């Protein structure tokens, strides 16, 4: 129901844009988030955008570099990543969360940043 895309290999300092299209859900009802997970680590919330306000949250390590946005008409959430660092290398997941707590996950997309 959530299909993420846009991962790949980029050099340090470069940019990538991730997309996550939502199918079969009423997109506008969901808070949307991007998480990332390294092998052996817990999945970490790095950016989120609330509904209906569009208020955003960023974890400290990505503030000023990453931008989350959503297009309710396209049922899609985006993550624009600039100034990428090798430590940003992870599998990135999108998440759709209802205020009730029910959530759905995308399949993950790998971002690799070379030094």
Overall mean confidence score, pLDDT: 96
| H/E topology pattern | EEEEEEEEEEE
Low-confidence sequence ranges: none
Beta fraction: over 45%
The biggest sheet, with number of strands, parallel, antiparallel or mixed sense and barrel status, is: 7 strands, mixed
Structural class, please? mainly beta
What gross morphology would you assign? Answer: globular
Q: How many whole angstroms does the radius of gyration measure?
A: 13 Å
Number of helical stretches of at least 4 residues: 0
- Number of strand segments: 11
Tell me roughly what share of residues is in helical segments. under 10%
How far apart the termini lie comes to 34 Å
Key terms:
single chain, 115 residues, mainly beta, seven-stranded mixed β-sheet, 11 strands, 0% helix, 52% strand
Summarize the entry for a quick read.
With 115 residues, this protein is an all-beta fold. Helix content is 0%, strand content 52%. The chain has strands at 2-5, 8-11, 16-22, 31-37, 44-49, 56-58, 66-71, 76-81, 90-97, 103-105, 109-114.
């Amino acid at each position: 129901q959530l299909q993420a895309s846009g991962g790949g290999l980029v050099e340090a300092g470069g940019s990538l844009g991730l997309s996550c299209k939502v199918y079969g859900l009423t997109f506008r009802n969901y808070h949307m988030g991007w998480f990332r997970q390294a092998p052996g680590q817990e999945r970490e919330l790095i950016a989120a955008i609330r509904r209906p306000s569009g208020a955003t949250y960023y974890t400290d390590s990505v503030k000023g570099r990453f931008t989350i946005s959503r297009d309710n008409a396209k049922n899609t959430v985006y993550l624009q990543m600039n100034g990428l660092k090798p430590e940003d290398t992870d599998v990135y997941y999108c998440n759709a969360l209802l205020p009730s707590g029910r959530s759905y996950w995308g399949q993950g997309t790998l971002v690799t940043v070379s030094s």
